Amino acid sequence: MAEARFSVEASHIMMFARAVGDANPIYCDEAHARETEPGGIIAPPTFVQASAQFQPDYRLRPKIGEPWFGSGATPSGTLMPPGDAPDDTDAKQEKKSGAAAGGLHAEQHFHYHRSVRPGDVLTMTTRPGKTWEKQGKRAGKLVFSETITEYRDSTGELVVTARGVGVRTERVIEQEG
Q: Model pTM?
């Protein structure tokens, strides 16, 4: 189980709401938020996903001086060390990077036990969930796997449970002869 912590600040909530295009004043206007049912500023529904930026080793987070997975230089966003690619074609770059077999993010669910608020210090604990398989019509076997992340406040109260589902294909390799 991986564990990380992050502090929730009002400015983080406001910037996240702006980034996702949600102008609801409950995310940034304290006077307005006091008059609502929650009684104060709260975070937008998917805000806890931003917690990944507080994890130094998060694989999609840019690192100074290192190639970035999300660079966009190739269709998959992955980079290969110079000289590794047999030529500059995107197809070979993607094939070599493994992006075609890397899988997809299929679902994301959030269960809120209470609202996330400025001042919360959340501890995230991530663990694997269920795994299951289905037979695809064209892609071969599809393998689904869950990741469960629990966000708890400084008292240990469960605030949010996030469940992500990934899917990858496992193609049968046909043998010659």
A: 0.72
